[in-house]
């Protein structure tokens, strides 16, 4: 949340007021290991492995190009 606060304090407050359960998968109350994924989700994840190391703007550009093809 420190990074969010550096960008915009209002966003940090909004996310905290919305409770973590509503927006953060890492705070889910259920076991996420049992979540089913489809083949298309696995394919997209595989295509974006290298892009995950990029800054967010560059990552989004890679995702845009992927979905545009």
Describe the protein in words.
The chain is mainly alpha-helical. It folds into two domains: 1-31, no CATH class; 36-69. The protein contains five helices and no strands. The chain has helices spanning 2-7, 9-17, 20-23, 39-47, 56-68. It starts with a helix and ends with a helix. The mean pLDDT is 78.
What is the number of E strands?
0
Supply the number of structural domains: 2
N-to-C span: 34 Å
Overall mean confidence score, pLDDT:
78
Keywords:
elongated, mainly alpha, 59% helix, single chain, 69 residues, 2 domains, 5 helices
Layout of helices and strands:
Layout: H1 2-7, H2 9-17, H3 20-23, H4 39-47, H5 56-68
Q: Quick recap of the structure?
A:
The protein is 59% helix and 0% strand. It has helices at 2-7, 9-17, 20-23, 39-47, 56-68.
């Amino acid at each position: 949340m420190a990074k969010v606060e550096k960008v915009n304090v209002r966003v940090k407050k909004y996310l905290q007021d919305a409770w973590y359960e509503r927006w953060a998968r890492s705070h889910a109350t259920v076991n996420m290991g049992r979540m089913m994924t489809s083949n298309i989700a696995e394919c997209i994840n595989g295509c974006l492995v290298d892009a995950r190391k990029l800054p967010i703007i560059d990552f989004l550009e890679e995702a845009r190009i992927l979905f545009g093809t």
